[in-house]
Write a structure and sequence with these properties.
Shape: globular
Structural class: alpha+beta
Radius of gyration: 32 Å
Oligomer: single chain
Number of strands: 25
């Protein structure tokens, strides 16, 4: 067959296959256009998962009469004034959204500029463009897309259920709303409002924290995220990173709650996934994932947003710089959080403690006031008639011991109990009451495993083994990061066969690997020779380790597997070298452990992201007993 030019309608439908994958894709393109138009309010409505109707209305600048027919032509845009694809400052710059959507649906556009006398409308049906007509509408633009994919019915077979498509649209709206907190968004699905985000006024705290950004994240991710996230602010070589990252104890079972925005554009990027994995590697097990929302702003020439038809992926000019900025900022913020653990831990504990009604039979004891039993028919079950029951009841009601001594008194900052004479005014400088410390003053030990401490407004329960394990592990990490990793020289250097590209990547990272105790060098075109390995790893499988490193460098541009293995060994050593559950501690030892936790970063969670302590506020405890 001779080469021929395809018809324009078919060309548009092919383009639609790249840009409009599903109804959510159409919503994304139309909402991005509304954001580019300077809208302060965007209302979206869909029906039947977006198959029957997609309506997007905004109060932006609108379009003039002569702009409408050009807007539905391919590759027509107002967002590339200099024709420079490296200087993209808008979300929708390709000029493919409207013609692509119109090629596979029945689309109508009504738009009005602020100073125009009337609005103008145009319709596109299956790629056929109608004439421009006058219409009645306020300032802004309203685009309606009906019968999506009617012109290519085969595409309808690949759509999922209405519920699945609804959820996809909701996710698109959530991500776009996160990136633009100054804009109000609403989403109606089959006549019901399923998403609403009111505009958040711009404001800053004294420390520079962006309250507008946090306010929008709280609207979408919930109050728990706002309460359990640390602010992220970092800048390096003109690249600025802001946002919020959840504490390690506030985690999820999948990576769906991780959001990255580049110059206001929601993207998915492997570099971002690898950076998050590296930043949280110390705190979470492999099957748990952090909750983060990060906003990266950098000069337009430093990032290429034109590598994907749907603009879902980007490519950075200096990916190493970006990754280092993300990892460094996250680790610094988590370190500043200190021993802090998420409040959801306490909420879960309180939820488990709430009393529940149980269908137990009435108690057969006598009346509290000494009268005859109120439980008729149970006379044969009175304490006097059941062997051992009377003794148990008497023991339960017996007066308890006197705990008014040193155990309940205040202690010094070193954890020593204060005698009554030491607490009078003649003792000189008054000691610091430990209850004023974040983790309070130790009051006792339960089951030789859990330390109970009293704070100024509640109680703290500490898992002594998990807490001390974290402290030992952090000390080992300090030595690891300082480059003091002992090496073990291999009796016979081991040659590892790789592809030429993999061997080159490893050779270029040889200095970084040597700092971690792995000494290797190139050995021909497609191999490396390993001469020394970290002594901590013991009898390590060199071949498997080197291959894992080569894969990680190719995918994440990092030497993470070696660090993970070293940290895993340190974690194991810390586990065996820490205070074991079942060991009885003195009051001084308990308070010393609490003070070390307060002074050690990341002590609020163990190496797998589980909390090392639970704090219960007095007000919440009083609610359990109906005192509030």
């Amino acid at each position: 067959m001779a080469i021929r030019r395809l018809p324009e309608t078919l060309v548009n439908r092919i383009a639609a296959g790249e840009v409009v994958e599903r109804p959510a894709s159409a919503v994304k393109e139309l909402v991005e256009n509304a954001i580019d138009a300077g809208a302060r309010r965007i209302d979206v409505a869909i029906a039947n998962g977006g198959r029957s109707l997609i309506s997007v209305s905004d109060d932006g600048r609108g379009m003039a009469r002569d702009d409408l027919p050009v807007a539905v032509e391919r590759h027509a845009t107002s967002k590339l004034p200099s024709d420079d694809l490296l200087d993209i400052r808008w979300l929708g710059f390709r000029g493919e959204a409207l013609p692509s959507i119109g090629a596979v649906s029945r689309m109508s556009i009504v738009s009005r500029q602020e100073n125009d006398d009337s609005a103008w409308a145009i319709e596109v049906e299956g790629g056929k463009v109608g004439s421009v007509k006058p219409a009645a509408a306020g300032k802004g633009t309203r685009i309606e897309v009906r019968d999506l994919f009617y012109a290519v019915p085969a595409r309808l077979k690949f759509l999922k259920s209405d519920r699945a498509e609804d959820l996809a649209v909701q996710e698109i709206m959530r991500r776009l709303a996160m990136a633009h907190p100054g804009i109000a968004f609403t989403l109606q699905q089959d006549g019901r409002v399923s998403f609403r985000a009111d505009a958040v006024p711009a404001s800053l705290m004294d420390d520079g924290q962006d309250l507008q950004q946090l306010g929008r994240l709280e609207q979408i991710l919930g109050r728990d995220f706002a309460d359990n996230a640390v602010p992220i602010r970092a800048e390096r070589e003109g690249i600025r990173l802001t946002g919020h990252a959840g504490l390690p104890t506030y985690n999820r079972g999948n990576a769906q709650h991780q959001y990255l925005f580049v110059n206001g554009r929601p993207v998915r990027d492997k570099l971002f996934v690898g950076a998050l994995r590296g930043a949280y590697a110390d705190f979470l097990s492999h099957d748990r994932h952090p909750v983060v929302a990060l906003f990266l702003d950098l000069p337009a020439e430093q990032v290429d947003v034109n590598v994907h038809p749907a603009k879902a992926e980007v490519r950075f000019r200096d990916s190493g710089l970006v990754r280092g900025l993300i990892v460094g900022a996250l680790r610094h913020a988590l370190a500043e959080a200190g021993h802090r653990a998420s409040t959801t831990v306490a909420q879960s504990a309180l939820g488990a403690l709430k009393p529940q009604a149980s269908p137990t039979m009435p108690l057969p004891f006598q009346s509290t006031f000494g009268g005859p039993s109120r439980w008729r028919g149970y006379d044969n079950l009175r304490p006097s008639s059941v062997p051992g029951l009377a003794e148990a009841a008497a023991l339960y009601n017996a007066p308890q011991g006197d705990f008014s001594g040193d155990f309940s008194g205040e202690t010094t900052a070193t954890g020593e109990g204060l005698a009554p004479a030491a607490r009078n005014e003649d003792a000189g400088v008054a000691p610091v009451p430990l209850q004023s410390y974040p983790l309070g003053a130790a009051r006792g030990q339960l089951h030789e495993t859990y330390i109970v401490a009293q704070t100024a407004d509640g109680i703290v329960i500490v898992d002594q083994h998990a807490a001390h394990e974290r402290l030992v592990y952090e000390r080992m990490k300090v030595n690891l990061e300082a480059g003091r990793v002992p090496r073990q020289v291999l009796l016979l250097p081991e040659v590892v066969e790789l592809s030429e590209a993999e061997a080159t990547r490893l050779s270029t990272r040889a200095d970084e690997l040597a700092e971690l105790g792995l000494v290797l060098e190139g050995f021909g075109a497609g191999a490396v020779v390993v001469r020394e390995v970290p002594a901590l790893l013991g009898d390590v499988a060199v071949q498997a380790l080197v291959h894992d490193l080569a894969d990680a460098i190719a995918e994440y541009d990092s030497v993470l597997p070696l660090k993970e293995k070293l940290e895993e060994v340190c974690g194991t050593m810390a586990c065996h070298g820490s205070v074991r559950a079942g060991r009885r501690l003195t009051l001084d030892e308990m308070n010393a452990l609490l003070r070390q936790m307060e002074a050690t970063p990341h002590s609020g969670q163990c190496n797998h992201g589980r909390p090392t302590y639970v704090e219960l506020k007095l007000a919440d405890i009083e609610k359990l007993f109906g005192r509030r």
